[in-house]
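Hi support team,

I submitted a single chain yesterday and got back a structure, but I'm not sure I'm reading the token output correctly. Could someone confirm the output below corresponds to the sequence I sent? I've pasted both exactly as they appear in my results page.

Thanks,
R.
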Amino acid sequence: MTSSRRHFLRATAGLAAAAAHPLGARFSLPLATQLAGLGALAASQARAASTNDGYKALVCLHLAGGNDSHNWIVPTDAGNRASYAAARGELAWAEGKLQGITSGTQASGRSFGMPLELGPLRDWYESGQCAVLANVGTLERPVTKADYKAGVGLPAKLFSHNDQAATWQSLQPEGAPSGWGGRMGDILMSANQHPVFTAVSASGNAVFLSGNSVTQYQVGTNGPVLINGAQAGWRAGSANTPGALRSLLAGSGSNAFEAEYLKVVQRSLSTSSLLQTALGNTALAALPTAPITLPNGSTLALNNDALAKQLRIVAQMIAAGPGLGMRRQVFMVSIGGFDSHSHQMRDQPLLMARVAQSVNWFLSALQGAGMLNNVVLFSTSDFGRTLASNGDGCDHGWGSHHFIAGGAVKGRQIFGTMPVTALGTADDLGSGRLLPSTSVTQYAATLGAWMGLSAGELRTVLPNLGSFSSANLGFV
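Hi R., thanks for writing in. Yes, this is the structure output for that exact sequence:
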């Protein structure tokens, strides 16, 4: 195939992906310029990453809509509790509905709790296999409150859902051609026997997993997305249809475009069959059918929960990974409903429970498969939210707290700097919008280092990493 035709086909594929899930293109010129050249640099470094320490996987759990993390990690010491309650009003979590957590290295005298709905996640935290990273946000470089007021050094389109979700996933606003998960995959894919399974989404097309060389592989909750007409059975009025279609697809084509299209379809059929067989050989338990009773008396059926089903197929792929000759994989799952402008106290408890119960099942399944130490799951969201109530919910913010879980995590600690939970502080940009003290870039760099990327490779994946004093936050 000529280089011009290859370029055309790759460009066409990129346009199709952008149309399916547009995630952003404007950025400050220096970083945009650096990102434009990542493909060639990633290719030149593709064999440099350290991948000789067995299988490893990252799992990104995106909380779509902007999670109100003020109610996930709640202050329980007298001073911060009082200011939290005063600012939150009807959104404040009752003290009797919290379980205390070990606060680790945070300032002496401070204490925190997690809602009962997050109990399973708290148990992993207290067992040392889950940690919290405080006040993370989309920073291009460290920013002060004065910078914010002057509009200096800020990410593009702050507080916009699409743009901030894209910046979390790619370091650019909506329209970005690649994400940092995909750029890691560009470097790591050569370690895998089947590079097509390097970057895998269980939640549809996402810029996080788009690379310059790697192409994200999308799965449904039951496994690979199949070409139904080619599957055995009665199709289009005849049992002979699938065989006829497979014979047609086995051809070589009459022109260059047709030939290339057929190659793509043939690869899809081949990889789908390979993955189906591998998944069928895993011994992972099914999701429980018995309803789980939640703290408020309602019930949750994990076997019918969209997030739990996404995490189950990811767990199956992880269990199958070593047998497929995989050494490094990056996955993405997501759950929506976190844009809590209204009805927050009605909706937030169930969302918390869905996340905690689904993650608990996932980690337990990995533990049973002997893979817990090989996987790190981490949360992301569009942005944080205001500490102040709007009367029935809260509005778009910036910094937010996130959790990281897995056997390799240095758990039972809150990393980063937990801000004072009050209005009018040095970290308050208005209504309790947090000025981030830790960047998404640092968060990503810590995860990338665990995956085996060198300092130089991390700068390739995260071009603004040099703007921050610490490239490793130490949580894994």
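A quick pointer for reading it: The chain has one domain: 3-467. Let us know if anything else looks off.

Best,
Support desk
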